[in-house]
Amino acid sequence: MQTLTRCFRTGFALALLFLSPVALPAQATAPRIVTAATQFLATLDAAQRGKVLFAFGDAAQRTRWSNFPVRMSPRGGLSMGELSATQRSAAMALVAATLSKRGFEKVQQIVEGDEVLKANERNNPMFGRDRYYISILGTPSATQPWMVQFGGHHLALNITIGGEAGVLTPSLTGAQPARYTVDGKTVRPLGQESDRAFALLGALDNAQRAKAILNYRVADLVLGPGQDGKVIEPEGLKASAMTAQQRTLLLDLIAEWAGIVHESAAAARMAEIRAGLADTWFAWSGPTTVAAGENGTAYYRIQGPTLVIEYAPQRIGGDASMHVHAMYRDPTNDYGRKLSGTGR
Amino acid sequence: MILKGLLLLVSARSAFAHRLDEYMQASAITLEQDRVHLRVRLLPGIAVFPQLLAEIDVDQDAVISDKERLGYAARVRQDLLLTIDGNPVSLRLVASSHADIMELREGLGAIQLDYEAMMPMRGNEHRLAYENHHKPSISVYLVNTLVPPSPAFRVLAQHRDREQSTYELDYAATAVAVGSASAARLTRERWKWGAVATLLLLAGWVARRQLSARLP
Fold it and tell me: What is the reported pTM?
């Protein structure tokens, strides 16, 4: 009987070890991303490789990102529009390898939203999926840090990869239109960022809301592009004053950004954020109600020891629920400086 | 009417992606050892920029000269008010930069003005009040305090009006901050008086040499 129990225990432990959904990708992510990068680079000619590759320490390229369209704020690297179908597919496979499934889906929805904007703007060539750029900083490696950047209008992903670790900060997501229809299906690229924020706000009692809701208007991102390295004094409601259920809702909301990067890096990032949760603040400015299926028009900010998230609806275009900018930062580790040890 | 016309013109070009009919003014306050640093980032929308252009590019040559840059920084300063514990403190421009006119015209560029003010350090708890009344009819404001680089300062409370054009910051300066500010001031005073004494000594030495050269 004892032998049977031991066999069962050993079998269970082995099953946990080999079948765990976390354990497997943790071993496989870095080589998978390197393979995707190598395959992408192999599709390029020498001139294209010269355009897409930058030194890892190229500070100018690192910070060459914006919410603006590329024509207004030029990016470095190769645009999707100058790639063949095969090259483009390999480029997107590299981006996908660095992100989670949901993260990549969000990125695709942002890019497709810009294609909708292009159509709405009488086929304005300033917008659309051809206007997104990819670049690689450093040498793709399973052990040494390097970076992939992908972005254009309303999108700036700065992904530092260091072995199994992955850092997505600083990154900007946005959408205009923030709600559109494809094949009869409504798409809201940043819909969960709105819905989950309202779920959290709705779970607060009156005293908590009085702290969380700021009595002033916040018209835009405070720590948007060009504001690297800054930390503002936090305001609002501290998570230490939330119930366990409210803190879960807060973590669900944070996961909309922290979960964009590939799964093993996202798990590590969420653990880090959870560790600093008691010192994390939630602040809200603007309308406290929203119609079902619509995006809210309120600004909110989440700020913790290693985290700044801002969600800022924009008046530009006429309807703030249809135009959103959002920022995701880790002031202690933007551009993965903890991985590289080189600072910014 | 003019603004409406401009907006229509803008819409016809591309009403998306540009900042339009707002003049964004983002202020960031930093408490330093013995001074306050104030950075004001000004981002004009394309519909309001023509109103500002006449004030910035005074000679209308489509170039912002150093004189014009400093002139506009001085005009902005006139619309700012900074007090500490109720006493107005004077803001000194320490740096400024402008995007070129084309970028500003497209709603892409920023004007960045850096001011400093000396910070009185008597006592431990203080109230800093800041008001920005620059171009209120077309502006939206942001104002924040950056986490102080020195742990000697602790922010106690922040208050703003709805539009963020007025702001109050309650903060505590520990004995370390007060001490180091006093030490910094003392060091500056020592350097100043040391330099005066050296000059006097030098002048005396030169005079004595000249006098002794004239003597037979």
Answer: 0.85
